[in-house]
Here is the input.
Amino acid sequence: MLSRFTRLIRPAAPEALPAIPPGERIYAIGDVHGCADQFAAMVDAVEADDTARGAARTTVILLGDLIDRGPDSAAVVRMAREWAARRSVRHIAGNHEEMFLESFDKGDVLRHFLRYGGRETLLSYPIDPEAYRVADIAETQALMTAAVPAADREYLSAAEDLIRIGDYVFVHAGVKPDVPLEEQKRRDLRWIREPFLSHRGAHAGVVVHGHTISDAVEVRPNRIGIDTGAYGGGPLTALGLEGNERWLIEATLGEGGASTSLRTL
Here is the structure.
C-alpha cells in the first residue's frame, strides 16, 4: 500500500532544458550598431572565453544590425569580415542591413535609412562631410557607391535570415508565432516586434534575437532577447551556449575605453 501511495505522489520529472548538440559551443552577439570599440572588446573576450572552456566546435553568430547609429559602422563590418576569415562566424541580416543595401538603388529607402542612423554609417566611410551635406539623393547614392567597398556590400548581402542549432533558433527580430520556421517571412524575421514579444506559447525552439532594446537581457521560456542598447550607452551583449549551460559576456564603454564582464544565466 505504501509503495502504491509513494508512486502516486512522486513528483513529475523536470522538463529537459534546451540544449546545444554535444561538442558544440555557440556565442550569439546582439546588435552592435556601429559601436566598434565595444565590438573589438567583445571579439577579444569571446576568444579568451572560448579558449578557457577547452576544445569544442565553436560558432559565433552575429544577430544583425552591425551598422547605423553608432560612430564607426565601417570598422565594425571590417572587423566582422576579418573575424570570419579566422574562425566560424555566421551573420544574420538585420533590418538596418536591409535598408543600407537597398539604399544604393532605391531613393525612397535611402531617405528612410538616413533618418535611422544611415548618416552615421555613410560618414564612417571615406565620404567628405561637406559633399554629403549638399548632396541630393542621387548624389548621395553616387557617394555611397564610390566609398563603400564592394567586399562590404557582398559580405552583408550574404547574411542568413535564420539559423537553427539544437533547441535554439537564432534570428534578428523574432518569428511569427504559430508559423513553421520554413514558412516564416523575411520581413518578420528582420522587423517583427508584436505579436512575437508578448507571445507566451512555445516556438520551434528557444528564439535568440536582438532588434528590440531592453535594459537587461530578457530571458523567457520561449525566447532570449540580447539587444541591450550598445549605441545608447548600454552594454554589447553576447550569449554563450554549450550543452544546457548559458552565460553572458557584456562589453561596456567607459571613460577608460571598453571593458568586458562575464556572468552565468
Notes: DSSP finds nine helices and eleven strands in the chain.
